[in-house]
Design goal:
With about 375 residues, this protein is mainly α. It contains 16 helices and no strands. The termini are far apart. About 0% of the residues have low confidence.
């Protein structure tokens, strides 16, 4: 039977192993200053949790009662959760955090500790006594913790949406996989806000089940975080975000030029193109499509705009008016080309079709084709034969 002491010992070992993993990440493979700072924050969080579980194990606070254990839980889990949340947010925001981002966690921790201290000192009982005042302070601290996690979940979610938009307006293939761990981590942090109070106030089997779920999430968060830092993903995301910034600057310059040309202070909407400009873009795109320009592998949005002969802003705005992203547009063009190629060359294999149509490899061809058409290229060829 799994005992409380076994759970706490397992948590200490897990947090120490994760700390070691973070400490021994190869520094030269972590390119940006923000990523290195995020690693330090994540390391601080795992070290704090290792200390927390070690104190729980050695002091036996949970065996003394829920109230005694909750005091330490709140005092240690709030800053640890804040460090995890800030580490992920640093990666998302490239180090540009607002004052609210920086101080929400510390403020919640200081208020919670102050409430616990006041309750413990004014109830007239020994420090670790189970009193009504202390229980009320602990419940208030748990509510503050959930509100803190809710705020950071909102910030993570909005930042993730912006990152995905930047990627889908830059790369010619689906790159959502590089951020999937971040999406799952955000969901996990949100669930953590609900599970942690249940774990620290709960008892019995349910408390152990929730604790196991928390341990699994923490392992996933730190392990995925480490893999992300040493992968090419941060640089790719940064390139896409830089492109998005430059597209906005192009939009502002074009809007200013049109305003000056019209002799008014008001320009056109930076997110829309005039009918005349739209017609020009469509003509340029049609000529580019006729040349088969979309069949280049690894065709980034800036290169495509240059090949078409228009600005990145005009290409992005034209696609948005059509309700698609650059990634989606390229996928649609290449799948249509693949359908024509399969019909014209039924003897070609998937590798040859992928190379001809601009897909990175046969796996990307098969995944993209099935996503759009609902069937594999092989099945499509069989249907043509039938």
């Amino acid at each position: 039977m799994v005992t409380l002491q076994m759970m706490q010992f397992t948590a200490v070992v897990l947090m120490l192993l994760l700390t070691v993993k973070l400490l021994f990440l190869r520094e030269r493979r972590i390119k940006s200053r923000q990523a290195r700072q995020a690693r330090r924050l994540m390391t601080g969080g795992t070290m704090l949790l290792a200390l927390h579980f070690a104190l729980q194990l050695t002091m036996g606070l949970r065996l003394m009662g829920v109230t005694q254990s909750v005091m330490l839980n709140l005092a240690m889990l709030i800053p640890a959760s804040y460090l995890f949340a800030r580490a992920v947010l640093l990666l998302q925001r490239r180090g540009e955090l607002s004052l609210t981002d920086q101080w929400t966690g510390p403020a919640v921790w200081m208020v919670t500790v102050a409430m616990l201290a006041v309750a413990a000192l004014t109830d007239g009982q020994p420090l670790l006594s189970d009193t009504l005042e202390l229980r009320m302070a602990e419940k208030a601290g748990a509510v503050l913790y959930m509100l803190m996690q809710g705020y950071y979940t909102w910030r993570h979610s909005s930042s993730l949406v912006a990152m995905r938009h930047a990627l889908s307006d830059y790369y010619d293939r689906d790159t959502d996989g590089m951020l999937r761990w971040m999406q799952y981590s955000i969901i996990g942090l949100m669930l953590l806000a609900l599970m942690v109070p249940m774990a620290i106030f709960g008892t019995g089997t349910w408390m152990l089940i929730i604790a196991f779920a928390i341990y699994f999430f923490l392992f996933y968060l730190v392990d995925s975080f480490c893999f992300y830092l040493v992968s090419p993903a941060p640089e790719r995301v940064q390139a896409a975000e830089q492109n998005a910034t430059e597209v906005k600057e192009e939009a502002c310059r074009e809007q200013a030029a049109m305003s000056s040309h019209k002799g008014t202070e008001e320009g056109t909407d930076a997110a829309l193109l005039s009918p005349e400009v739209t017609h020009e873009v469509e003509q340029a795109v049609a000529a580019w499509l006729a040349r088969g320009g979309y069949r280049q592998t690894g065709l980034l949005q800036p290169q495509a705009a240059q090949d078409i002969g228009i600005s990145r802003y005009r290409l992005t705005a034209w696609l948005h008016q059509r309700g698609v992203k650059y990634t989606e547009w390229m996928a649609q063009l290449r799948v249509e080309e693949a359908k024509r190629t399969i019909a014209a060359h039924p003897d070609w294999g998937n590798d040859a079709v992928a190379q001809h149509c601009g897909f990175a490899d046969r796996t990307v061809l098969q995944r993209t084709f099935k996503k759009i058409e609902g069937i594999t290229p092989q099945k499509y060829m069989e249907n043509l034969s039938d």
